[in-house]
Specification:
mainly alpha; 81% helix; 134 residues; elongated
Length: 134
């Protein structure tokens, strides 16, 4: 009878140890989840910081436009977006209103450059027609 009591006690101890081990695994899994969540939060905070810096730069650019043009705040912001946040391009377009754009002078091509240009164009056309035929 003593042997059966000891066996039962050992089985209970083993079952408790297994429960403890399972709980420890759960705790470890939860700690890993918490760590992953903290990393996600940190990444989101970094994104927010970058966005805030971008907004601050855009606001500074709008203030520059307001000082150098007669645009309203809304117009300056719209023009800035229109010119891909290049405030210098906005100022240039503001100053060049009503002026004809300057035409660029292209230098003449040498005979060799003309020949290779025609070869490239011919090969491009051949490639396009071959691709369309396939």
């Amino acid at each position: 009878m003593a042997d059966s009591n000891t066996n039962k006690e050992q089985e209970q101890i083993q079952a408790q140890e297994e429960q403890i081990q399972a709980q420890e695994e759960q705790i470890q899994a939860q700690e890993e989840q918490i760590q992953a969540q903290e990393e996600q939060i940190q990444a989101q905070e970094e994104q927010i910081q970058v966005q805030e810096e971008q907004i601050q730069v855009q606001e500074e650019q709008i203030q520059v436009l307001l000082r150098h043009t007669n645009y309203t705040y809304a117009e300056a912001r719209e023009k800035l977006i229109e010119h891909n946040n290049d405030y210098m391009a906005v100022i240039r377009s503001y100053l060049n209103q009503g002026m004809t754009p300057v035409t660029t002078i292209t230098k003449p091509l040498s005979m060799n450059q003309q020949i290779y240009k025609e070869i490239r164009l011919f090969m491009d056309d051949a490639d396009i027609s071959h691709t369309n035929a396939s």
